[in-house]
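Friendly challenge for the regulars: who can give me the structure tokens for this chain first? No prize, just bragging rights.
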Amino acid sequence: YFIMATTNIRIYQFIGTVTGSFEPIFQNYERNPTFRELPSGRTEHSSEVHFSYVNKPKIGLIASSFAWLAGPGIMYGVLDFLKYPEKVAVNKPLIYWETLNKSQVPISMALTPHHFLVLYPKELQAVSTITNEVVWVYTFPDYVNRLMGLSY
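First reply, four minutes later:
Bragging rights claimed.
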């Protein structure tokens, strides 16, 4: 199994096998927790982690990448299950909020195979996972009430 958990500034990977209970996976990390910690950033939003999936013949859908909405920005990475058991998530550089939108704090996000969809109070942005550039922006009309979240 591969389990990913996040806080506002930390991301954890738990890797192991399950035989009736998940407890053995977590016990391995009690003595030596491994995580990546980001510099603290905006704390006005919650931490979210999202996955993108590919359909593999004879296996079915498997997660292929992840995006983590965190305090200072978005962390994106690919999931390489051949690196098991040491590490599955391979991270790319953090995309800081200031490079995407200088005046707004994101509310939520979603991940597609090629884009992050980042939701702001009055705007939805599509950001390329390849170039990290904003490639599309939709501004919601004034009659749209308070936006709460985004799902894909």
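The longest strand covers residues 60-69. The helical segments are 23-30, 97-100. Your move, everyone else.
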